[in-house]
Amino acid sequence: TENMLWGGRFTGGLDPLMVQYNESIHFDRALFAQDITGSIAFARANAKAGIITQDEFNKLEQGLLAVKKEWEDGTFKIVPGVDEDIHTANERRLGEIIGKDVAGKLHTGRSRNEQVATDMRMWLRDELRKIEKHLQDFLNVTAARAEQEIDVIMPGYTHLQRAQPVRWSHWMLSYGFAFASDLERLREVIKRVNRSALGCGALAGNPFGIDREMMSKELGFDGLLWNSMGAVADRDFVAETLQWGSMLMQHISRWSEDLIIYSTSEFGFVRLADAYSTGSSLMPQKKNPDSLELLRGKAGRAFGHMAGFMMTQKGIPSTYNKDLQESWEPMLDHVKTVSDSIQIANGVLATLSIQPEKMKESLDPFMLATDLADYLVRKGVPFRETHHISGRCVALSEQTGIPMDKLSYEQLKGIDARFEEDISKVFDYEKSVEMRSAKGGTSKACVQEQIQVLKSMIA
Ligand code: ARG
């Protein structure tokens, strides 16, 4: 225990399993660069406050950069049982390189509590900004496809039953707007993640008059966390990221589910590129949409991390408690899952081929039953009545086996005398789609407008 940073008051050794149980180095080493950058900023501010000399600062900075280089080159040797976390490991190695006299001054007034919050916030901010780019790319592909394939019409479903014809682009944009809302939310989350905890000490603040604003600027934060106890206590920024990512994964999962259904032989609307499918070891004909199934499956994993960490955080008393170390692994895994998933989804969409003929074949005249009712509405008949009349046309078609659009004018007239010759014009899928011309609808002009709105949200 005497090697430990906190070993002064301890005499007995730790239980060996406790050593492993306690240490976080095997995952928090991923943030070695943030830890060192944060330490340099802290040392610089301590020099400015007159706590260390300029010369000492120079030694600390050079030493810290040398430690960083070892991590980058893969030569850093973790000392098992001593390097309990990334902060401890870096400081131990710094002491070996520049000597303990100067290295021992780095931590003046500092606590690992502020350090860990600072490292995680810096890392998360940078990762979320990368994710923001991936999401923009995905949305750009969505918008571009929606533009190119605007003339393709497909069956729209409710309850997975054929409902009304819509543009294929309209379907793509329905998810596009969900992802655009995720993008808006992400930008909000980044603002709250990117606040500085450095200079808050263990909980009560810094006693050496350290310039927190200066450190915050150097580290690229947008501002300070304003209460030192709160700054070291919360991992709300992790929880909010997990919640954000869960919503996004929910959208990805539903999007995937639609495409899985559309890619079956029964539907045949889309075909996945080879790059995102796999075969069967037994059945030579198989091409399975594994990419989409994994996207759907990984949503469960993302939600699990979110729910799990909410549980962890809920009962923790004020300020730092070791429970908070349990925020790391959900964060690291969740961020990777979300980032990879967006990129995979983008790849799937960018390489997907569509089968417009199959979509067309799946349209059936019953999907125009509402249009038939609307026809009579335009002749002044109340909708409740026209709904019923159209229902009788559906029934007649079912009884006779004659498709609804092939029922004779006389047959329709027999059901309601207000049908006129022009009723035949109702049975036109393109026309049905074009009728939905109020904003947000599936007419061509509306879809074009949606594309413009979506693009403005991406920018
Ligand atoms: N490894 C710790 C964590 O991730 C760092 C903070 C340790 N602080 C402490 N007071 N033991 O939470």
UniProtKB/TrEMBL annotation:
Argininosuccinate lyase C-terminal domain mapped to chain residues: 366-434
Enzyme class per UniProt: lyase
Entry's Gene Ontology BP terms: L-arginine biosynthetic process via ornithine
Matching InterPro entries: Arg_succ_lyase_C, Argininosuccinate_lyase, Fumarase/histidase_N, Fumarate_lyase_CS, Fumarate_lyase_fam, Fumarate_lyase_N, L-Aspartase-like
Domain spans labelled Fumarate lyase N-terminal: 8-304
Entry keyword Lyase: yes
Keyword annotations from UniProtKB, A to Z: Lyase
Protein name stated in the entry: argininosuccinate lyase
